[in-house]
Amino acid sequence: MEVYVAANAEKTIEYVFNTRITNLATGTSLAASTRNDFDWIGIIIPETDSRNFKSVILECHWRDAYSTVYNVSGWRLGITLGAAAVSDLDFTPTAQTNTGDHEAGIIIRDVTDYFNTNFGASASQTCQAAFACATATAANVQNVTAKLILTYEYNSSGSRSVKTVHVPIQSGSGLLGTTAIEIGSSGTGSAPANQVPALDTFLPENNKSYKQTWFEIYANDGGAAVTTFSASYTINTGTSASRCSLTQTLSTGTFYYDTWLTKWTNGSNVTTDIYVISASAASAFKIASSLNARFDTIGALYCVTYEYDSTSASVMNSVILPLDTNPGYVGSTTSADGNYFQRDIWVEEPNPILAQSGILLYSQSAGGATFNVLAGTQTARPYTLTALVNSGGHATIHRIDYNSGFTLTRGKSTLNLKTYTAAAATVNTLVGLAYINYTSGSSPQGEIAHNHTTIWCLTPYIVSGAAATMNEVSASTARAPSITNVEYFLNGVAYEIGSRFGVATDGISIHSEKAVGEFNGDGWRNIDAWIHTNDGELATYNQIAAGLDGFNQDTSHIGQMNIESARKYRIHYSTAALFWSKMYLTYHCNTFAVSGSFSNPTGSGSNVVIDVYRTTDGYWSGSTLSTASGSYTMNIFDNVYPVFASASQDGTHIGRSASALAT
Fold first, then answer.
1. How far apart are CA 614 and CA 605, in angstroms?
2. Which of 193, 338, 540, 576 could cross-link with 467 by S-S, CB 3.0 to 4.6 Å?
3. Tens of pLDDT along 416-426?
4. What is the CATH class of 1-156?
5. Across 315-341, average pLDDT
6. CA 479 to CA 293: how far, in whole Å?
7. For residue 133, what are the CA distances in angstroms to 34, 60, 262, 500, 519?
8. Domain ranges (residues) in the chain
9. What is the pLDDT of residue 4?
10. Closest by alpha carbon to 238, among 266, 201, 275, 208?
């Protein structure tokens, strides 16, 4: 095993802005629309040596506040760093026809080049984001959020590091009432109480400094009449924080996303608690609705971006993996016949211990459903997806770390998930992400070798032109992932697509270009496909594709796609749509040495091919050439399962080593 030395690596962190919960006026042009300049925040990145931004995404969510039906004619996303000039980008594609109901939307912008030009060399910078929306007739939008997703290269020689961790808070099992309850901790398959962890002990690193804490809340708002309503959030028995008053004139069950920023840091590195949450004791996250029976299966991610000592002996590892879920209908109605899917993760850090983890599932259910979810041998938890005039679909967060849900060990661990519904074919286009957190000792090769997820912008919306059925993303637009370490092992490749359309049924597929040396070196590889069915309301719908099987899983293998190669993508729809897309890449760089020698070769024994295989299943782990003395050494990516070396110099000089663990 190699010993840690400072080296370059990549990571992704996140910072959010305070949500605009009041109405924002739209005009008939972007110039005539009211601009929302979010509050300035401080972005703290202590790794300054060799820092280079590789992909920076500004992501905004919004919801309409219409009293009648209007078409959106454009969006403006702005970004400012410190004293640098404001950079605005307008997206004005041909307007899509509003289908008569409320809409929730998502739009992203690639601001990577702006950050490289203007962030500077210091460990902190002030930042402001901006949003505006134009409509055919002046109106309002509301509940506007903004988040920065920053992927950068850095050198690990510094004394301080920063990371972002997402902690799943399990969804409630149905609609909310007017009394605040701790979501997810009651009913069948309930999660343990007090799901907001005590960060001081939950995060094991030394000398932590919390730069931001926030909740990302997911639901369908459950709107079923014209009465306006809102959610309110409470920690334990604290003061209630009222959120956006959601316009319901068009009587629509609309996808609900909110960010509740509870702690933030300004550009002078001064941290302020907007809402005090104890870091020394676990807490209950409670939600109520101002109107009874609203907010369908509401759940959350509790997120923290924090700084800590780079030399910490124990660390939190936080990864995001795609789920190979169901592209069509969930047809099963019993656990014995449930839709079954798996996700493997290879963990090579010392002494891993599973921490609070869960899955975020997006689904469509036009007529409502009882949607049962379980991990491992858990008791199935029934989530009631309400029958609504549905715009944007449903979201459900389910914890996997309790009641024998998911067991994580060194080596290969498998997350087993099962879903079924009370009536067949009532849920479709089931997709999702797994948020897996675990603590471990620091690898001898340093934390830069640990499992982690980086996020890459593939494409925002088109800035002009019409929605199309066949869309090609150029290789120059898509941010190709980069991995500085020359040896790596991929645990997951996910594509997230935000598709804006307004039809009841749409076929969707994503394809990647195959380069020379990849498969047959020509044409396109189908990554995933879905058949979407819902009420046909105009909204942004999320698709998640699992794409690992098309790529070389590690640097020992060739012949499939290279994760670092620039490539084109095609996204097809049976009915035209606007779309944006980003990639989640999860990998580790932990390596372990296999070495030995052989005797009685023909000649010097040099340049004999040595192949290494895993004993348990015959998996080929890689190969190397022997030296003149018959010696060999190479690195592989696991030392939990024994391997053996095999050599064949000619028909009579053949050998195999005993099985042993890499070191």
1. 24
2. 576
3. 999 999 999 99
4. mainly beta
5. 90
6. 43
7. 8, 11, 27, 15, 44
8. 1-156, 159-323+341-363+385-399+429-450, 458-590, 594-656
9. 56
10. 275
